[in-house]
Amino acid sequence: MDTANQLASGGTFQVLKLPLGFIRVLEWLFAIFAFATCGGYTGQLRVSVDCMEKASSNLSIGIDFGYPFRLHQVSFEAPACEATRRERVFLIGDYSSSAEFFVTIAVFAFLYSLVATVVYVFFLNKYREISRAPLIDFTVTVVFSFMWLVSSSAWAKALSDVKLATDPDEVQLLIPACKIQTNKCGSVHGARWSGVNTSVAFGFLNFVLWAGNIWFVFKETGWHKGASRLAGGASEKQAGTFNQQPYNQGSFEQSGSYSSQGQPSEYSEVGGPTSYSNQM
Ligand SMILES: *[C@@H]1O[C@H](CO)[C@@H](O)[C@H](O)[C@H]1NC(C)=O
């Protein structure tokens, strides 16, 4: 009933204008771009083998590969430069673990941020009532930030190795006929990388989004509310006991003595956070 009324007035979608909700929407959009550009990749390189006996040459050998980059399973037929005999040549390397890890993280990040967006829009009051919900949200957000960083780094490294392993100049060296001086091998063209390069960029962009949202989710947790309350109490108490010291409010050495409250008071001095929490 309550939700229905809010929905009718369009009020519930206001949460999407807050950083917390807005970043969640960007998160699942960019997660889609990340796994689509990586998981949907196919590329082709082309080499030529020009044998001394022209009849057995093949000047356009296409080699297709793509996600999940199990290059050791990618093979092609190259002329052996002996009559019409051909031989099967395999590429080298298996980069599937990094590629699949990246896509898996992207898919789960997409699902989580989509569900979180739905929860914020339709169940924001429940989300704030159940104190455990923001805590879980906070923990999951921290974990995904870390996972985006790790998987994007791993994928960036794997992709640079894939580029090397599928370089036509390198692939030529795998063809036995090309080891014979009298046969000439060349590269016709390499694979296009622009699409899959953006997957790495989207990966790191997602890391920035998730890491940035840690702060906004943190503000929904009881820790932040408890912290500002504690810090407020502490500074009042501090002012009462040490009011002969004019600089006690801003002094970090002073707050250092309150080891359990040092952290919160540091946050409260930032200024920004308190004004944000008033907005919400
Ligand atoms: C050259 O190799 C391709 C495979 O990339 C094959 O389809 C084509 O038939 C070959 N051409 C000749 C002349 O053998």
From TrEMBL:
<dbReference type="InterPro" id="IPR008253">
    <property type="entry name" value="Marvel"/>
</dbReference>
<keyword id="KW-0325">Glycoprotein</keyword>
<dbReference type="Pfam" id="PF01284">
    <property type="entry name" value="MARVEL"/>
</dbReference>
<feature type="region of interest" description="Disordered">
    <location>
        <begin position="240"/>
        <end position="280"/>
    </location>
</feature>
<comment type="similarity">
    <text>Belongs to the synaptophysin/synaptobrevin family.</text>
</comment>
<keyword id="KW-0472">Membrane</keyword>
<keyword id="KW-1133">Transmembrane helix</keyword>
<protein>
    <submittedName>
        <fullName>Synaptoporin-like</fullName>
    </submittedName>
</protein>
<feature type="transmembrane region" description="Helical">
    <location>
        <begin position="101"/>
        <end position="123"/>
    </location>
</feature>
<dbReference type="GO" id="GO:0030672">
    <property type="term" value="C:synaptic vesicle membrane"/>
</dbReference>
<keyword id="KW-0812">Transmembrane</keyword>
<feature type="compositionally biased region" description="Low complexity">
    <location>
        <begin position="249"/>
        <end position="269"/>
    </location>
</feature>
<feature type="transmembrane region" description="Helical">
    <location>
        <begin position="200"/>
        <end position="218"/>
    </location>
</feature>
<feature type="transmembrane region" description="Helical">
    <location>
        <begin position="135"/>
        <end position="156"/>
    </location>
</feature>
<feature type="transmembrane region" description="Helical">
    <location>
        <begin position="21"/>
        <end position="42"/>
    </location>
</feature>
<feature type="domain" description="MARVEL">
    <location>
        <begin position="15"/>
        <end position="222"/>
    </location>
</feature>
<dbReference type="InterPro" id="IPR001285">
    <property type="entry name" value="Synaptophysin/porin"/>
</dbReference>
